[in-house]
Amino acid sequence: MSYGILIVSHVPEIAAGLPKLLKQVAKDVTITFAGGTDENGIGTSMEKIGQAIAENSGDEVLAFYDLGSARMNLEMASEFADKPVHIYDVALIEGAYVAASLLQAGVALADVEQQLRPLKIKGDK
User: Fold this and answer.
1) What are the pLDDT digits (tens) for 37-47?
2) How many Å apart are CA 32 and CA 34, to the nearest integer?
3) PROSITE patterns given for it (predicted)?
């Protein structure tokens, strides 16, 4: 079983930039991203997210996002995905960094999720 990481941000440059940081600690983990609207404006695109899920070579994808409406598009895109997508309500940079470094070290998904719990953003979900 292999796991990949997906970054979703309202800002294309954030979505594209964060994988550069993650690759410093997770060179062997597949990391894809989706940022901005279809016109590359501020926002998110279900189509871009779906494409990033499909392009991720992981058997399962751990998804991290910046704001609530990105979660909505992630949920919709994951319904059409051909692989499981795990969506995490955690601080974007810190959560993705923790997950990437642990996946690189071969840590099991349940243990990765346990390490993500303290980074959870408080809210309705």
Assistant:
1) 999 999 999 99
2) 7
3) PTS_EIIA_TYPE_4 (PS51096)
CA distances, 91 to each of 2, 108, 118 (Å): 23, 21, 10
pTM of this prediction?
0.95
Q: Which of 10, 36, 53, 58 is catalytic?
A: 10
Has residue 124 been placed in a domain? no
Q: Is residue 86 flagged as an active site residue?
A: no
Residue 31 belongs to a domain with what CATH number?
A: 3.40.50.510
Please list, in sequence order, all residues whose beta carbon lies within 8 angstroms of the beta carbon of residue 39, skipping any fewer than 6 positions away.
Answer: none
Among 104, 106, 120, 52, CA closest to 80: 52
Tell me: the pLDDT tens digits for 68-106?
A: 889 999 999 999 999 999 999 999 999 999 999 999 999
What total number of domains does the chain contain?
A: 1
Count of CB atoms within 10 A of residue 102's CB? 22
